[in-house]
Write the structure tokens for this entry.
Amino acid sequence: MELILAITSGALYAAGFYLMLRRRLAQLIVGLGLLSNGTNLLIFTAGSLTRAKAPIIPEGQTAMTGPFADPVPQALVLTAIVIGFGVLAFALVLAHRVHAMTGSDDIDEMSKVSG
Amino acid sequence: MMIATLALAPFVLIPFAARMGKDSRWAAILAIFPAILTLCFCITMGEVLEAGPITVNLPWAPSLGLMLSFYADGLSLLFAILIAGIGSLVVLFASQDLKGDPRSGQFQATLFAFMGSMLGVVLADNLFALFVFWELTGFTSFLLIGYYNNRAEARASAIQAFIVTGTGGMALLAAAALLEIGAGSHSFSELLSGNADIRSASAYPWIALLVLLAAFTKSAQTPFHFWLPNAMTAPTPVSAYLHSATMVKAGLYLVARSTAILGGTDLWTGTIVTAGTVTMAVGAWRALAETDLKKVLAFTTVSALGLIMMLLGFGTDTAVTAALVFLVAHACYKGALFLIAGTLEHEAGSRDIRELGGLRHAMPLTALGGLLAALSMAGLPFFTGFIGKELAYDALLGQAPPGPALLPLTVGASMLLGAAALVAGVAPFIGRMGKAAPTRPVPLALSLPPIVLAVAGAAVGVYPSLLDGPVSLMAANVTGKTVPVHLALWHGFTPVLLLSVLTLAGAASLYAFREAIRRRIWPRTFGFERLYTGGLGALDKVSAWSVPAMQDGSLRSYVLILILAATSLIAGVIAWAGLPPMPPMTEIRPAEAAVAIMIIAGAISAARARATMTAVLSLGVTGYGVALTFLFFGAPDLAMTQFSVETLTVIIFTLVFYHFRRFRSHSNRMTRLRDLSVSILFGGSLATVLFFVGAAHTPFGLGSYFAGNSAALAHGRNIVNVILVDFRALDTLGEITVLATAALGVRALLRMSKRDEKKP
């Protein structure tokens, strides 16, 4: 399963970077979103997969018993998801604004306008 | 403790110097402090003569085993006395020289900062402390050379001196680190008393050459000497103090100090003697070609530094004794001559030797100082310079080859130096009046310091046996064994006496023909400075070519460079270390595999999409797929967060991209193919690394701690949540701040859009 998830994460990165190498602003941001998803999957997979219990202590107990998923990568990924969303939202609105001002979503044309 | 206090005292005085230095009368009083320091060092010297060296340890960074330790033996105290003593005279001189300068307070403060740094260099026991003080002298020297910072020439010289001596400083740091590794100590007192023979260590050649690089750059040895004449853009008190009497001798101190630890090998002796000899010759030759009084003195300083360096390189008893006596003599007469050059410039308005002459009546005290200093420099009997020169000749005669072979060159250089001494110290005061003339009597603050220095130099020459004890002690500190020293004026009719007479005669005749020599001397320069300018120019050219090539302002090039660099790094490591054996994998379940394939399909579709909406929906598909994967592998929290975030993302995307047209392809087929293959290469290498990392199943580190303590310490059952809001709450606060900032940005951008819409 690690192999499949590793390939999946790699595919998300490849597609994300391919889109970031395009001249379209919209494609750039979609690429950013793919990259963000790929990273989340990457951290999650690197933190060792397990189908065991979620790291939630059952009612009436004070500690986990038996095998359980590592909570540390999960906490990291949770942070990453939220930050990724913040960045994406900002990038989107910025793109919207730039598009409104320049009337174009071609990055190269934009630099010509400003320069 | 006493030594540490004395060494650091000038730093404490900096604020006073800054305040008092503003007014010339108060600034003159400042000179008392270094004078007191000098007295203290003389008393300490007396103690050391009887009771041996003093060591003081102050904790600096105890966790690293670093101590701010000071070590005072004869050698370091000799330098300390020169630094504080000449410092006192220079402060007095500067109080008048810079009278009326609005920044004179700043100048005096920097002078005191330098004095403290220099005392630190010669009194530090710890090589790392030595390095810090060494760099501080370079830094204060930079400030002082560039004091007239409105002149481009001064700025360039300051930078040049800083780069050249700073390179040596880095070498010193590297040497200290190697010595620490090789000999297990970075303290002079331990290394000097230790039995470990560093000379046979495999790192020895590196240590020796790095130490010598530091010493050669600081003491202006060829091919690094060019910064010193250029540093003459500094105010004259600085030239007298830093660039003849003290800082340029820091390299000599380093070599002398290291002789007992690193010296005695062919590498050590050969390198130093070669550099010293060449420097002596180059400096002496160039001195007579100059017309600027300060440049003449600067080149003679270079030459003298070379001679002392050469003698230290031989490292025998007689050579070291000669080096030390010559060093003291040079500090006195050269300091005096520089101050006299400063007086001439300040009072007569010129330091061009063609415009100066006949000033003996207008400035009698200064003329007397010049005469005494010049005669000492030329090596006339009854002056310290004479004793130093005799000792040097005697030492060379007694050396193993190539010692005696260097004698003709040394005598020749001494003749040139003697002629230069007369040019600098006598010529401005005799003969016909030149163009430059003073308008008032010379103030005492200007005439006193040079004459004190010159008389001090002459006094020792009359009673040389005064110095027997201290010089013997210092020489012993350098060589590491007892050195009997008997300084005397008269040695009888020896070959050395003959050489001295020959030198004087040569100097006198060279002086007589000085005009002709100055006009016809060839070559006028040796072109070593071109190494520096050429090197800097090449650096500029590389930057001019590489910066625009690497930073063209286009995001795409940055992304491309980033991916390619990362890919080659990963591929390089794999090629170098090979792949680990295939690890066991978690079993594959059809449903999970199907979700993974869905994500991959989503990614491909997003990359291929022509319509904006297709791309956005494909992005959503990958997000939901990732969320499902989280759910499969015991992370329900992540799944929930990802689901909601993904939904929001798709909605916002749709709203924003509603206005955007269809994608048109802007790039041709080749570009797309290139981008695609680069991206796939990167994705592939990342997947490889991730596979081996993920399948290695490293055991929990922090995970078990959190699992065991979240209920007990934080009263929470959802461990991931407890980590976020309790154990790592500060991180989460930071994260919230980031989100809030992003939200503010979004809000501001949207308001701007609204305002634009309202406008017609």
